[in-house]
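Can you please make up a protein's amino acid sequence together with its fold in token form to help me picture the idea?
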Amino acid sequence: MNKSPDRPSLARLDLAELETFLWVVRERSFSLAAQKLHLSQPAVTNRVRRLEDKLRVRLLQRTTRSVEPTEEGVLLSEAAEQAVAGLREALKRFSAVSEGERNRVVVAATPMLSATVLPRLIHAYTERYPDLQIVLRDLPYERVIRSVVEGQADIGVTALDGTPRGLRFQSLAEEKMLLVVPAKHPLAGTKTVTLDQLLPYRLMFLDRYDTLRKQLAEEFRKRGADFDPATVATLPTLLGMIDAGQCITFLPRSMAQNNARRTRATLTVTDLEASRRYGSVVQQKAELSAAVQNFRAFLRQHFRTELEQLD
């Protein structure tokens, strides 16, 4: 035995050696322990010997017929069995948490999509895959993007002009932009209008519709007209301004028709080709779990159809 005066340290203990010792105590045999561990008998013997050297005590009393723990061996085996059992329980919990995370997909989406398209899609998906959990977070556009970038959501579902830095975009659908006006507006009595007919009226947009504003600015410039629209951050504010008769606006078809009321009219601008892209975004360098990949593929397959059914 090693007679070094240094006190034994936990840092010097080897878990494999400790587990091997426990199997020898349980089986009362080096050979049976070797079989349980799928090791050679000399390997088992060497592990126990190294453990004894580190602890500077004899742990096992070897006889011709069996192996019995010494007093120190009994003390160590009882303490080690409790420790190993606790470690196994902790590892089991870690495994359960990891499995739960693998089967959980957090989806961040803008309010309109969270209230209309996604609930039915999530229901259909979880009916097909009951072991998977889809968590839907209803967030403003900016927070949808930020939650994906910061890893708080696995997937973001929204309408986008471009792809924000650090994200990967997958197209799900594209919709024509429709004109929305107050029900008592001079243009409300017809189903179609031209851009020239919009020139006298005040326009207001959601502030994230940069591409549409640039497109209309160019069209107004061609007609020698000023273009100075107002912007707002949220859809409820925009709709409130329309209902108050303060402006006209453009919205994607599903959004316009889903928010149709007697106080509003929806029209098509015949000489404007403007659309809005819907898509899913994930982190650019993220290693997507199988659950995230499968749900994203499901969205790509079914999102457009569900969106079209909002009429």
